[in-house]
Amino acid sequence: MTKCSLKFEDVSFAYENGQKTLLSKLNFHIDEGEFVSIIGPSGSGKSTIFKLITGLEEAKQGDIFINGQTHKSRLGQVGYMPQQDLLMPWRTVLENASLPLEIQGVKKQEASQRVVTLLEQFGLNGVEHLYPSELSGGMKQRISFLRTVLSGSNVLLLDEPFSALDAITRLSMQEWLLTQWETWKLSILFITHDVDEALFLSDRIFIFTEQPVTNFVEVSVPLGRPRTIRDIHAPAVIEVKERLIEQLRAKVTL
After folding, report:
1. Cα 27 to Cα 9: distance, rounded to the nearest angstrom
2. What is the CA radius of gyration of the chain?
3. Which domains does the chain have, with CATH numbers?
4. What sign for the dihedral angle of Cα 214, 217, 220, 226?
5. In contact, 234 and 223? CB cutoff 8 Å
6. What is the pTM of this model?
7. What are phi and psi of 6, to 5 degrees?
8. Which value, to the nearest 10 degrees, does the dihedral of the CA atoms of residues 4, 202, 236, 215 take?
9. Pick from 246, 230, 113, 128: which is nearest to 175 by CA?
């Protein structure tokens, strides 16, 4: 039986002033080892979902389960990777990557030793003593992802992590991310505005188009694993892409 890594059960949320309800009795789940993307226009509730999962906001109603359990405080229960890398400019690659372990109480020397064993796997071998200002955008995102993995959770939230990268670097990072996801057996919830990116990476895609969000269009990506970027040009995938774009455009007001 497939285990559920993340589950929303009748979750509702509105800001304190009560003027805008964003979620109303929302239900969804992410299975263990599944890669799910959320796409939708700005302001549709995507980032609110992440704030609720991480514990930065609290639901007004309903329950959020992480690995089958609710938590009084969800802070630290999942790994979170934002759009910006948020690397500390005064810390080296090794020191930046060690930060989540240090926060967990691991001694600095032990944290560094654990990070060193992962540098090659994350494409960071040989740059561990450099500072963020000396690195490319793709390299910074590799460090950010390593730091997210080292949070210790099997559930990762990735909020448009490649949006600031150029097209070639972005594609390379997407391919690299899939390799890491398959290696670490992670459950990933991924926010993107890029339909091609969602199709290439995901098992399922959630399309947020209504407010408040009570439900959403869910699409299964008709691709197996492993896959390459060329696979998204298959007729079945192109058909899904056209349907996704049509649904998104129907809800965008100019």
Report:
1. 5
2. 19
3. 4-78+153-251 (3.40.50.300), 88-151 (no CATH)
4. negative
5. yes
6. 0.93
7. -145, 135
8. 60
9. 230
* 3-class DSSP string for the chain: CCCEEEEEEEEEEECCCCCCEEEEEEEEEEECCCEEEEECCCCCCHHHHHHHHHCCCCCCEEEEEECCECCCCCCCCCEEECCCCCCCCCCCHHHHHHHHHHHCCCCHHHHHHHHHCCCCCCCCCCCCCCCHHHCCHHHHHHHHHHHHHCCCCCEEEEECCCCCCCHHHHHHHHHHHHHHHHHHCCEEEEECCCHHHHHHHCCEEEECCCCCECCCEEEECCCCCCCCHHHHHCHHHHHHHHHHHHHHHHHCCC
63-77, 205-219, 223-237: which range is least confident on average?
205-219
Q: Which residue is it, tokens 């020397």?
A: 109
How do residues 24-57 score in pLDDT, each as one tens digit? 899 999 999 999 999 987 777 888 999 999 999 9
Q: pLDDT tens digits for 145-182? A: 999 999 889 999 999 999 989 999 999 999 999 999 99
Instruction: Locate 148 and state its tokens.
Output: 């997210």
In angstroms, what CA-CA distances link 153 with 6, 77, 156?
12, 6, 7
Max CA-CA distance within the chain?
54
Average pLDDT, stretch 80-96? 93
CA distance 130 to 78: 28
